[in-house]
Design goal:
The complex is a heterodimer of chains A (112) and B (114).
Chain A lengths: L3 E4 L2 E5 L4 E7 L7 E6 L6 E6 L5 E4 L2 E6 L4 E6 L8 E8 L6 E3 L3 E6 L1
Parallel strand pairs in A: 2-11
Antiparallel strand pairs in A: 1-3, 3-8, 4-5, 4-9, 6-7, 7-8, 9-10, 9-11
Chain B lengths: L3 E4 L2 E4 L5 E7 L5 E7 L5 E7 L6 E2 L6 E7 L2 E6 L7 E9 L9 E2 L3 E5 L1
Parallel strand pairs in B: 2-11
Antiparallel strand pairs in B: 1-3, 3-8, 4-5, 4-9, 5-6, 7-8, 9-10, 9-11
Classes of the chains: A mainly beta (112), B mainly beta (114).
């Protein structure tokens, strides 16, 4: 069964710390791994994404680390800011259908 | 740039009622999606369509019908609303092809069934 497991369910960090959000999967046909963020009352929006040919993707304070062998990927948010407080969803695209399979989300709270 | 509009924004229905949600996009994207978002359960795919008149079932298609009338619009019908049901229905679109195929989401329709 195609699944993406995400942890933790909720995470609280202090301003300036690095927040680490984790995901894992089982299906080797997954070929694209995006992270979406969703602020309260808003819709999800793409934050950053990676393909399995790379093991790291950076965009400012946001970095994806990807481990193909262990089928795990994580989002690191450096120098966390209160404005980063949101729900973060990892996802994986099934290579055969193009469908995105979403994790259940991590609610991040950054305390000032 | 483009935009996705969903109507209505709020939908209140009665148990057993047939309810229709509408989505329009002006990105000129080929693929459109309907997701259901429940608190604590992430986003679950109901239906998607890769082109006009195409329809593909997602993981949560039972109890729903969908219709891709034209490239820019995708409708979802709840065939029989369940009592005390509350969820947000999100429409999304993405271009076909290309490695990254980012999905863009609409603002959502919030359903409450009395």
């Amino acid at each position: 069964q195609q699944q993406v497991r995400q942890s933790p369910q909720s995470l609280t960090v202090w301003e300036g710390e690095t927040a680490i959000l984790n995901c894992s999967y089982e299906d080797s046909t997954f070929d694209y791994f995006p992270w979406y963020h969703q602020f309260p009352g808003e819709s999800p929006a793409l934050l950053i994404a990676i393909r399995p040919v790379s093991n790291k993707k950076e965009d400012g304070r946001f970095t994806i680390f990807f481990n193909k062998r262990e089928k795990k990927f994580s989002l690191h948010i450096a120098d966390s800011q209160p404005g980063d407080s949101a729900t973060y969803f990892c996802a994986a695209r099934a290579g055969n259908t193009g469908k995105l399979i979403f994790g259940l989300g991590t609610t991040l709270q950054v305390q000032p | 740039g483009g935009i996705i509009t969903q109507t209505p924004k709020f939908l209140i229905g009665q148990e057993g009622q047939k309810l229709t949600l509408k989505c329009q996009q002006n990105f000129n994207h080929d693929t459109m999606y309907w997701y259901r978002q429940d608190s604590g359960k992430g986003l679950r795919l109901i239906y998607y369509s890769i082109t006009e008149n195409d329809l593909q079932k997602g993981d949560l298609s039972e109890g729903y019908d969908a219709s891709r009338e034209k490239k820019s619009s995708f409708s979802l019908t709840v065939t029989s609303a369940q009592k005390n049901e509350m969820a947000v229905f999100l429409c999304a679109s993405s271009p076909t092809g290309g490695v990254y195929a980012e999905q863009f989401f609409g603002p959502g329709t919030r359903l409450t069934v009395l």
